[in-house]
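Annual report, structural modelling task.

Input specification for the arginine complex:
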Amino acid sequence: MKIKRQGFAIRTGGFQTGMIIMKANTAISETKGQCPVNSHNEWDPLEEVIVGVVDGATFPPYHITLEATMPHHQLPVFRENAGKPFPPEQIAMAKQELEEFVHILEGEGVKVRRPVPVDQLQQYGGPGWTSTGLYDAMPRDVLLVIGNELIECPLAWRSRYYGTAAFRPLLKEYFKNGAKWSSAPKPELKDELYDYQWTDPADGEPPHFVITEFEPTFDAADFIRCGRDIFAQESNVTNKFGIEWLRRHLGDTYRIHVFEFSDPHAMHIDATLTLLAPGKLLINAERVLEVPRIFKGWDVFSSPKPIIPDDHPFYMTSKWINMNTLMLDEKRIIVERQDEPMIAALKNWGFTPILCNFRNFNSFGGSFHCATLDVRRRGKLESYVLDGE
Ligand code: ARG
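The model returned the following structure:
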């Protein structure tokens, strides 16, 4: 048996024995040094990042999950365009902004990786259902990086069943170079997962969600990493079952804290509560009515109100997407170029904003945090909040 030094591409064919795997891994760490995946929080110096693509973006087939997760005035567009591609001119404008974003990141010394877009119009199905896809624009939603591990999420939307496919070439490469790669149990996405009677909660009523506890589901973007502590929300894509799966999967090294916010269409925590640096929290004060006790002693910054004009097309998000920024380290932060109130506020709070046009990308339902997956940041696992809170 000959074991070559480049990963596990070994003549014996691979994975059969523990001994081979161990030797192969030793070879990897000897030749490459550090693991290519290493990210514990939102602010350590960014070294490598995946940036999504909008090519082939498609409106999903109409489904009750859309009603629960987006502002209602956007729904007619989804009804009319179900299963059809997004307008090509909108894709082109968003694509141009993504290129600008990539250019900026590279200029700041960050290695940028891109997925290989997949055909979103291809039909697929599961027990009792069929669907077409959505897009590969938001790696933040579909993949969770915890330390050296990449986790493929059990996504609750049928249109996202194959949501990690575009990232598989990268996942395989990271695995070969030493990362841990796992996938949560693939959901069945049967009708039992959805509450087809779902309607908006009445004012003051506690949140209720469009997904049931039929099986574990979660989107990575419902979690925010803060070293050993992970902050989460239950939402219209993330259920208790999913959070519990992740808690047990990660084990005692991590603590998952689940917060409740005032958001009738909750999906993804990163336009509600984000972390800018150790001890620095950014909140959407319309949704975070009380700052969780665990942040005692932290600076709490309240996001300036978004200034995006009402006639700007928006799908799948509220205007609060303006707080969906990306930290390159504890100071440098990528912000939408036209968002003057946010830029001024960040400067005032001691950060260094780096401006990038992104409004046309925002139309697709996310901003810099959603569009990225910080695969590697220079840093190690630490605790940043008081124990036992
Ligand atoms: N649901 C949020 C809002 O409407 C948008 C969150 C987008 N985040 C993401 N990771 N795709 O404000």
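The radius of gyration is 21 Å.
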